[in-house]
């Protein structure tokens, strides 16, 4: 399987760069428009799915929420999956700072006639303003935003709009949202601007770096939140993990049940 995946990605990175994009029908029976030559799209093209365990976990948690906000949506796979699963019954917002990818997500939503989905072309941060999106050619999933206080980069960086999660809450009636955060090490800033989501009892699933965990846990503890690992076990300081699920204490039992179930799948 590892060798097959290596060959698939090698082919995708060479031969298939001759076209601009692909429209793929995935196992979940929705279509997605993906850029050619981008490594993040390889598994979607060849396997017709993307990160199935994470997708299963997110869709399970979405059953406890009124809406879904995909922060750092990249190609929009999880946002599209949420729309396909719920038949438009729940508001879905894909937040993606890369304008090329944001346009592809919007086109994917239109191809599926997903009318309750929205795309916000922006990065999330602690304050509204402007930032610099540092791009990595053919690897859209590694793009990250940094403050405009940095000197302009010559490595394909572009200026992007920055908004807070509080502002996102002011744009749409989200209620208790499931919020997936994948922002390449900038997650602390996202949480600093998330008071509206936390007061609404959102469930947050975030990629985390070891340096960001203590501050995020301290911030969310003030709102009555507890951190869980992907397998449903409460997080213990010092344990290495790539992702944490932050849930209000009132939802701990239900969230734990979903995580344990997803880990067995």
Summary keywords:
265 residues; alpha/beta; Rossmann fold; seven-stranded mixed sheet; four-stranded mixed sheet; 13 strands
Helix content: 25-40%
Number of strands: 13
Q: Tell me the Rg in angstroms.
A: 18 Å
Which parts are unreliable, with pLDDT below 50 for 5 consecutive residues or more?
A: 138-144, 146-154
- Shape verdict: globular
| Biggest beta sheet summary | 7 strands, mixed
Spatial strand sequence of the major β-sheet: 5-4-3-10-11-13-12
Which structural class is indicated by helix and strand composition? alpha/beta
Mean pLDDT: 87
CATH architecture group name: 3-Layer(aba) Sandwich
Range of strand content: 15-25%
Q: What is the assigned CATH homologous superfamily?
A: Vaccinia Virus protein VP39
Head-to-tail CA distance between termini: 19 Å
CATH class reads Alpha Beta
What's the structural blueprint in terms of helices and strands?
Blueprint: H1 2-14, E1 21-25, E2 31-35, H2 42-47, H3 52-62, E3 67-71, H4 77-86, E4 91-95, H5 99-112, E5 117-120, E6 123-124, E7 129-134, E8 144-147, E9 158-163, H6 165-171, E10 177-181, H7 187-192, H8 195-199, E11 203-207, H9 213-221, E12 225-228, E13 243-248, H10 252-264
Parallel strand pairs: 3-4, 3-10, 4-5, 6-9, 10-11
Antiparallel strand pairs: 1-2, 7-8, 7-9, 11-13, 12-13
Helix pairs in contact: 3-4, 3-10
Question: How is this structure best described in words?
Answer:
By secondary structure, the protein is of the alpha/beta class. It has one domain: 3-Layer(aba) Sandwich (Rossmann fold), CATH 3.40.50. Helices cover 35% and strands 23% of the residues. The chain has 10 helices and 13 strands. The chain has helices at 2-14, 42-47, 52-62, 77-86, 99-112, 165-171, 187-192, 195-199, 213-221, 252-264; strands at residues 21-25, 31-35, 67-71, 91-95, 117-120, 123-124, 129-134, 144-147, 158-163, 177-181, 203-207, 225-228, 243-248. Strands 5-4-3-10-11-13-12 form a 7-stranded mixed β-sheet, with helices on both faces. Strands 6-9-7-8 form a 4-stranded mixed β-sheet. Strand 1 (21-25) and strand 2 form a beta hairpin. Helix 3 (52-62) crosses helix 4. The longest helix is centred in the middle third of the chain and has 14 residues, at 99-112. It is globular. The two termini are 19 Å apart. The model is unreliable at 138-144 and 146-154 (pLDDT under 50).
